[in-house]
Amino acid sequence: MRSLPYDIEFRARARRTQAWGLGLLTVAGLLWIWFAVGIFLPYTTTDGRDDAECDSRWSSEYLHDEDSDCVAERDWPEMVGILGGSIPFAVVGSVLYAGGSVSHRMAEHLAEVTRLNGQRP
Question: According to the model, what pLDDT value does residue 72 have?
C-alpha cells in the first residue's frame, strides 16, 4: 500500500488547484460587479467644485458631451479596462478549476477501479 501517500498528496494538490481557480474566478466576478456598478448605477461627481447628479452611463444621452462634468468622472476607456482586466483572471481561474476537478475525479476513478479489480466474485 505504498501508493496511498502519493494518492493522498495527489488529491490534496488537485483540491489546492481547484481552490486557486475558484479564487481567481472570484476576483474576475468582483471585477464584473465593479464594471456593472459603474455602468448601470447613477452617481455623483466628486471633483470638489459642485457635486452634480449624473445618470448611469448605460442610459445617459450625454456620453460624449465634453462640457459635462459627468463624462470625465466615469469614462468609457476606464470601464472597458476594468472589464478587460477581468479576462485573464476568468480564463486562468477556469483552467485551474477545471484541471483540479479533472485530476480529483481521475484519482477517485482510479481508486474505485483498483478497489473493484481487487475483489474477485
Answer: 64
